[in-house]
Amino acid sequence: MAAEGDLPADLLTEEVKHSSGDFVPPDGLCWVSVLSCLLLACSYVGSLYVWRSDLPRDHPAVIKRRFTSVLIVSGLSPLFVWTWRQLTGVRTGPALLSLMGIRFEGLIPAILLPLMLTMVLFLGPLMQLAMDCPWSFMDGFRVAIDPWFWSLCFSDMRWLRNQVVAPLTEELVFRACMLPMLVPCAGPLAAIFTCPLFFGVAHFHHVIELLRFRQGTLSGIFLSAVFQFSYTAVFGAYTAFIFIRTGHLIGPVLCHSFCNYMGFPAISTAMEHPHRLTVLSSYLMGVLLFFLFLFPFTDPAYYGLPTPVCTLTSSPSSLCLS
User: Which residue numbers delimit the CAAX prenyl protease 2/Lysostaphin resistance protein A-like domain (predicted)?
Assistant: First the structure.
């Protein structure tokens, strides 16, 4: 390991600044950050509509075309962060990919702990699913390790979209790229609640689909859009919290995929379940355990202190501390 005297003076100064929390945001940073995030969100959503088609969004041909455009935008999204850095003059200690949560330090905890935390939150729905499933545990295990099962999954365009492409691209764009641009401007806590607004508004494009194909009444479509915005905003705040605390992209991606698989908890069904008391107790227990484990499971000490995105804050934040 090199001694401090072997480091170039400018790098040593920068390292000391970041470690001491003396980062000073340049003038006009917030405007550039918000506009960059808005442009990135519009590019992501706009890429879904570059293909003219009269087919619904779940048609395999539409899904394949959208895969192409959204993967291109997502692949180019790091350029937005690089350009933002050049325009603002923000000096970042960690490399660009590290800021975006693509790194090896703390990778194993980042794969396991956030996903376990999310499964704890879904304890009620998981209990309900297990009680209603006609399969035994061993039957489910045999299916899970069957290559034929996974080949069927990966050949299903809707499954591939919901479990792989959407979680990966949305977390890359709306968390890994936007949070490094928002944290220097707003700080970690405000960024957690600002970033999901772009994510929630981006999901309003589903209203276009519903209106085009007249899938419901106007009031029903509006209420559905409001609910989806609220749900995606809350979920986006949760994955933004995980990203800032862990400094990894993989955790939010896996949690996103899991939540897409589970869907919104069917509370009304739980109220009518034959074993209602057991199921509802599981719902309550899951929520209580989730809040109990929220900070311990995302302790930055497991993932390498400080997490890269936390080096961009102008003042120390409790979210970045162990």
Answer: 159-262
